[in-house]
Specification:
The protein is an alpha/beta fold. The chain has three domains: about 10-140, no CATH class; about 160-195, no CATH class; about 200-345. It is about 35% helix and about 20% strand. It is built from nine helices and 21 strands. The longest helix has about 45 residues, at about 300-345. The radius of gyration is 26 Å and the shape is extended.
Length: about 350
């Protein structure tokens, strides 16, 4: 399931960064979409069905205005003001508030802007999109959204690789070698660097889907199986510092598991295959998530992951007692030396 459709639609008030970037590039133009229709076309018969998105959009305005009145009473702005109130999944939230479904104009506009599918998001994000685009023009980049980044690439002093996937990284004491593959030609090459910096600290994954940005305290301690989905803003915490001591707890994410937007996985968290962590949810340290079906029990690889987590906790416990033992032994050695030195000085 592809999440980012590349920002074919840009709402003027909800995408100020893109607008400012286009102005700085000077030769990037926007075209107004008020003359365009959003419609379904039958590929076989060519039948045209207008979706009437403008009329459809009006149905969400009363709810948006009502929520804004509530938000104004808080001292926060943006997502921080609505995250606690609108954390429910978007489809569930609109049902509770008198709408049968999210208006097509909002759902299509949200996805076409490159933000993902509304079904996977807390209503907080959908509300912010509806609010900021309600009074703004809906536009798109003339020549296609990709042309914006192609023009940016030409102006940058460094070499920029577009449509390129990192397929492997090798390190030794002298350099770092990065294997890349061009998605169009499928050609693979290797580049060598003195050092390399990962922006965003996103863990390396196989065929998994990592939606937009995620944070990891230590990517080397995070393993993500194939077809897993890590949503926007998710935090994967694989270590902590407690009382001056570093405590490690690898995070393991099973195949086809899903982590919702801005979820927080504490160290030692293990997700079994097809397990789901809801949006904005915070796991407990060492928590084991299984697929939400009746009578589900860990089997096969899941049981191995559970055993690995238990082993991790045993090592942490041994580390705590080892530090205490070394401290006691040091005191036992230093005290006689100190008392002997004090007596000799009298």
């Amino acid at each position: 399931r592809v999440y980012d459709l590349g920002g074919q639609v840009v709402a003027a008030n909800s995408a100020p960064t893109i607008t400012r970037l286009a102005e700085e590039l000077e030769d990037v133009e926007f075209e107004d979409m008020k003359s365009h229709k959003l419609a379904l076309i039958d590929c076989n018969g060519g039948q045209f069905q207008d979706l009437n998105v403008q009329t459809d959009y009006m149905s969400i305005i009363p709810l948006t205005m009502k929520l804004q009145a509530i938000v104004k009473e808080t001292s926060n702005i943006g997502n921080h003001a609505v995250s606690g109130l609108l954390a429910d999944p978007a489809p569930e939230f609109v049902l509770k508030n008198g709408l049968q479904s999210i208006p097509k104009s909002v759902a299509y506009g949200y996805t076409a802007s490159g933000y993902g599918f509304v079904e996977d998001m807390p209503y907080a994000y959908v509300h912010e999109f509806a609010r900021t685009s309600m009074l703004g023009k809906i536009r798109r980049v003339k020549g296609g959204y990709t042309s914006l980044w192609e023009k940016l690439k030409m102006r940058m002093p460094a070499e920029v690789f577009c449509r390129t996937q990192v397929v492997g990284i090798e390190r030794d004491s002298n350099s770092v070698r990065v294997g890349i593959k061009n998605r169009e030609t499928q050609e693979e090459t290797t580049m060598e660097f003195d050092k390399i910096i990962f922006s965003g600290a996103t863990p390396l994954v196989g065929a998994s889907k990592v939606y937009r940005s995620s944070n990891s305290t230590d990517p080397s301690l995070v393993s993500i199986a194939d077809e897993a989905v890590v949503s926007e803003g998710a935090t994967l915490e694989s270590h902590q510092v407690k009382n001056g001591m570093l405590v490690l707890g690898p995070v393991r994410i099973g195949s086809r598991a899903s982590i919702g937007p801005f979820a927080f996985l504490q160290m030692g968290t293990v997700l079994a295959s097809e397990a789901v962590v809801p949006a904005l949810h915070r796991t407990e340290i060492g928590q084991y998530f299984v697929k939400t079906t009746p009578h589900s029990e860990p089997k096969g690889d899941d049981r191995d992951a559970d055993m690995a987590t238990s082993t991790t906790h045993i090592w942490q416990l041994l580390g705590i007692y080892t530090v205490a033992m070394v401290s006691t032994l040091s005191a036992a050695i230093v005290y006689p030396l100190f008392t002997g030195l004090a007596k000799s000085m009298q």
